[in-house]
Amino acid sequence: MQLNIFQVSSTLWRMRRGVVTSMVQSAVIFIALRSRILMVQCIAMMVIGLRAVRHWLKIAMVGWPSGSGMKCVTVCVLSWAGLALTAPPPSERTSASAEAVITSPVARGQKINIEFYDCGNKLVGIWRSMDRSEGRSLSAREDLELTETGWSRYRLTRANVDQDFLVIRRLTTVDIESRSQKGVKHSSLKVPVGVLVGSQLALYLEQHLSHLKLGRVLEFNYLVPDREMVVAFRAKFSGWGAEGRANVHMYAASILLRPFVPNTDLVFDAQGRFIAMNGRLLNQAGSSRKPELLDGSLKIVQRGLPVHLLTLNCNKAGVNY
Questions:
Q1: Would 321 be classed as within a structural domain?
Q2: What 3-state class would DSSP assign to 289?
Q3: CA atoms within 13 A on the CB side of 76
Q4: pLDDT digits (tens, 9 = 90+) for 48-62
Q5: Mean pLDDT of the 109-125 span
Q6: How many CB atoms lie within 10 A of CB 106?
Q7: Is 179 domain-assigned?
Q8: Dihedral of the CA atoms 19, 25, 26, 32 (nearest 10)?
Q9: Do the domain assignments include residue 176?
């Protein structure tokens, strides 16, 4: 069937409107899931996206000549929309358990159990040593409160060395409150836009892994609350491992800081998920008067933790005193 100029122009206009609507709303759904907004909002936006895709399909099937170009557009857009609509919920994507082995001389060989919980608008990390005997028990916990533009609060506690840090972010300023037996200390620090903290690091590298595989070097800023400083890091792809694994090397951007900031090597599986690391651990040994930093190797051993553990640890107060 031949179409006149008016029909073609009209169909093109409707086609463009339908494609743009579908792509934008699918993108909104994808961003919503990645930003961990309320599930009710996600479901409502999914319904809108499905209606847009149905509208687009109706337009595509009426009065448009068949061709390879049209087929390509149909497959590509529907694949992208399908990816957005079927993305796993946050709890399934990032909740996991891991094990770490300390390589530092002060506690060499000691093992750490780690649990990562995705609580929707909050990420929780719990680090506990397997050896609970007096003088050897190591514990740490971090709670990161997320927003649509990044993060707003972060809390880091290390019970065995009497450390407790609460960080409140206000645009390009963070207020740090540290508590110990000595008392409470308050300080403020200017930070760059987009500064990372805590477990954001692994998620950030997952999101940019495709760029790293192309040979690009990422530079980003990372907040170290217990040092009251921001360190600029660089990350680069360092080679392929078995079964399609990607290795990433991370180091301080400043040459002057490199002797004092340890390098970190991270591993991501063929699906782009973080699975292992060699570098600085969250735990510290020693005492409150003389805490000692610990390095070690970490690997993810299980993904998707039981619902009762998610409920228990996500409901605990974390970012507030």
A1: no
A2: coil
A3: 8
A4: 454 544 443 343 333
A5: 91
A6: 12
A7: yes
A8: 160
A9: yes
Ramachandran angles phi, psi of 216, nearest 5°: -75, 150
**Cα–Cα distance list, 105 to 108, 176, 184, 285 (Å):** 5, 31, 32, 11
Contact 253, 263 (CB under 8 A): no
Count of domains observed in the chain: 2
pLDDT digits (tens, 9 = 90+) for 218-231: 999 999 999 999 99
Residue 191's pLDDT is 96
Number of residues that make up the chain: 321
Contacts of 185 (CB under 8 A, 6+ apart): 177, 178, 179
| CA distance linking residue 267 with residue 241, whole number of Å | 8
Using alpha carbons, select from 112, 120, 128 the residue that is nearest to residue 93: 120
Tokens of 4: 């006149």
Kindly indicate the confidence band of residue 131, based on its pLDDT and cuts at 50, 70 and 90.
confident
Q: What pLDDT shows up at residue 82?
A: 27
Q: What is the DSSP string of 296-315?
A: EEEEEEEES--HHHHHHHHH
Q: Are residues 192 and 144 part of one domain? A: yes
pTM of the full structure: 0.68
The pair of structure tokens assigned to 39 is 């599930």
Whether residues 65 and 109 fall in one domain: no
Residues of the domain holding 55: 5-85
Query: How much helix, strand and coil, in percent to the nearest 5, is found in the chain?
Result: 35, 40, 25
Structure tokens at 156: 């880091």
Distance (Å, rounded) from C-alpha 100 to C-alpha 300? 9
Task: Write the CA distances from 255 to 159, 259, 261, 264, 281, integer angstroms.
Answer: 34, 8, 10, 16, 22
The two tokens of residue 175 are 């207020």
* CA separation for the pair 258, 280 (Å, rounded): 14
Residues 297 and 88: beta-carbon distance below 8 Å? no
Quote the distance between the C-alpha of residue 175 and its chain's center: 23
* Residue at a domain's end among 85, 114, 137: 85
